[in-house]
Amino acid sequence: MPNDMSFQFLLFDGFSNMVLASALEPLRAARDMAQGQNICWHISTLDNGLVQSSSGIQIKPDGDITQAGVVDYLVVIAGYDVRGHVSPRGRAQLRQLASRAGVVAGLDTGAWLLASAGLLNGAQATIHWQEAAGFAETFPDVIPGKQRFVVAGKYITCGGASTVLEMMLHLLAEKFGPAMAFNVANLFVYDAERQYDSGRGANILKRRSDTPGFLAAIDVMMAHIEDPVSLATIAKRASLSLRSLDRLFQRELAMSPGKYYQMIRLARAHDMATQTGLSVAQIALQTGFASTATLSRAFRAQYGTQISKLRAHRKG
């Protein structure tokens, strides 16, 4: 049948339920609209075992991955601890699976696994914004993209749940026409124009603030985690006075801009502590803290624990 669409969803521990739902539910909705399309999907894992989401929900694969046949779309979904899923055997399996798919998509941090298998060399790709810097550094042969989702030949990458829904609407429109995508979008009360305009990262706050300077200030902070800049510099680049900068952050986030800036850097430190093998000294350097002692004090005040204990818990 010309309107067939077959999907193989390859899940890794730590995946986001929201990302999976944003990919699956539009397909279910399109299938249920009974306009002659035959849309099917199945869930797989590399080891054929249960897979657990970031919120602890377990999913059983539909069948043996070694028996998987040719599909239209292979969709790789990974979330937390993506580096822990990289292995020679896994890379080989990904390459084999990709060779049997017409289109290969990497969702959330799935692009990391595709890149580790050499599938994105020379192509443009995007990833969840929290991993963008590490992705660009680890895979210099991949061209970083900042779009909400990136299409590069047979590969598609996107970095978050709302962008996944947008990507799926794009695929449905390509296959079944814009009316189908419009109907599915309406079912989920999805405003594509507003989502597209909202961008990524700090821009998600647009509906909360009508002051461009507020968003510009956060963008400056996000761009300077490793090499922090002064509040005066942030205010200047956002075309604000220091007083206006402080007033905006108190109004929008109920905290000072300095406190929010530190929270961003500590969040990055937390991610590095739980997902990488970097030393505390290396983490301090990459998050702009003057010393390991300074980072440790701020980290404990923010999270109520020491980085060393967090890492010990991860290993256990």
TrEMBL record:
<dbReference type="InterPro" id="IPR052158">
    <property type="entry name" value="INH-QAR"/>
</dbReference>
<dbReference type="InterPro" id="IPR009057">
    <property type="entry name" value="Homeodomain-like_sf"/>
</dbReference>
<keyword id="KW-0804">Transcription</keyword>
<dbReference type="InterPro" id="IPR002818">
    <property type="entry name" value="DJ-1/PfpI"/>
</dbReference>
<dbReference type="Pfam" id="PF01965">
    <property type="entry name" value="DJ-1_PfpI"/>
</dbReference>
<dbReference type="InterPro" id="IPR029062">
    <property type="entry name" value="Class_I_gatase-like"/>
</dbReference>
<keyword id="KW-0805">Transcription regulation</keyword>
<dbReference type="GO" id="GO:0003700">
    <property type="term" value="F:DNA-binding transcription factor activity"/>
</dbReference>
<protein>
    <recommendedName>
        <fullName>HTH araC/xylS-type domain-containing protein</fullName>
    </recommendedName>
</protein>
<dbReference type="Pfam" id="PF12833">
    <property type="entry name" value="HTH_18"/>
</dbReference>
<dbReference type="InterPro" id="IPR018060">
    <property type="entry name" value="HTH_AraC"/>
</dbReference>
<dbReference type="GO" id="GO:0043565">
    <property type="term" value="F:sequence-specific DNA binding"/>
</dbReference>
<feature type="domain" description="HTH araC/xylS-type">
    <location>
        <begin position="215"/>
        <end position="313"/>
    </location>
</feature>
